[in-house]
Amino acid sequence: MRNAELLRSALQSLRANPKRSFLTTIGITIGIAAVITILALGNGVKKRLSDEFNTTQNGEQYTYLYFTPNDSQSAASGFTETDLNAIEERFGAKVKKAAISHETNNASVSPLVGNERVNNATISLFKRPTSKISIIAGRNLTTNELLTEEPVILMKESLAKKQYQTVQNTVGTSVSIGDHDYRVVGVYRSQANTYNDNKYGADLIGGTKLFYSGTTATTGYGIKLTFYQGANAGKVTKKIKKYMEKKGTSAHDGTYMAVDAGAELTKVNNMITGLTAFISAIAGISLFIAGIGVMNMMYISVSERTQEIGIRLAVGAAPQNVMAQFLLEAIVLTVGGGLLGFVIGWLLAGIISNFMPYHIHAVITLNSFLLAFGVSASVGIIFGILPAKQAANKNLIEILR
Description:
The structure is a single chain. This protein is α+β, with helices and mostly antiparallel strands and 401 residues long. The protein is 54% helix and 17% strand. It contains 15 helices and 14 strands. Strands 4, 5, 6, 7, 8, 9, 10, 11 and 12 form a nine-stranded mixed sheet that branches. Strands 1, 2, 3, 13 and 14 form a five-stranded antiparallel sheet that branches. A hairpin with a 2-residue loop joins β1 (56-57) and β2. α2 packs antiparallel against α11 and α13 packs antiparallel against α14 (366-392).
């Protein structure tokens, strides 16, 4: 029999018992859906981490070096252009570029609000106005103001009430940060800012271009080191740290800390991959149970269709054709359930990701689809081969009796 005829015959046999066929595939569907959901969310977490650290691009490696002043009131500039030039000159064979790393979410500042210095405040910076805050007094920043570097800023409700008693009194006041004096044009509703993960919950919101202009553009408490391919980024970063502790412009005013984002990201990704595989294996138990159900159904089908098998053999069908038909029926059942499970898992992962923190989105890859297809087909082959062999080995003489 040709493949098309085998497939047509298999589909007709399955349609003869639609309820039984559907119930048999439920286990496969649930198992594949669970695995795809877990993989999609795991991939989403790894992508979010990769985007956050931005450790790989065109094969290059990145690490970070941070400076922490001994005194929160210290005037130490951290890293300067002089430090960057010295790093590139001394470690140029390994380091492709050294650049000031500017924070844009919850950067630490000590602004002068009115006549009072506010320590341990935070500011989030935007290139364009954000609509994800609720203005309760004054107005929002405008695109033109941010592009033209107008010295305007927004203040959080809790800070405004603490400094000026009412939000209305806050509008029009001044805030001094570094070299710039800002005018408060609006007050926005306070939002929770646990562990600095909510950029809309900062004490202040301003424009990136103005904040990092002047001296702040060439100084900072962090630098990003870009390495050539093949360089041992972690080892070189440690050498740079030791060098800065001796020769850095702020060496005597604070401490340096090296962060190999690539190495840390690899460790975290390995942990996530291992955890995802473990949970997927547990979810995959349902696939084994579903496979037993498929085998049971196929044995019942072979028993019920003994006469059909005898007729096929009597008219000249080869045993291998009978075996192929029953095996194909099992594969169609499991692959159909697997594809349905893939779609359900995709949708379920998308729904769950909407409730996850840190802006994590489910990521479905081609490998996930191939896994769903391959596993479901394998279940059909493994658990359908024995019933198919039994059908092929039927004795025509015994059937005729």
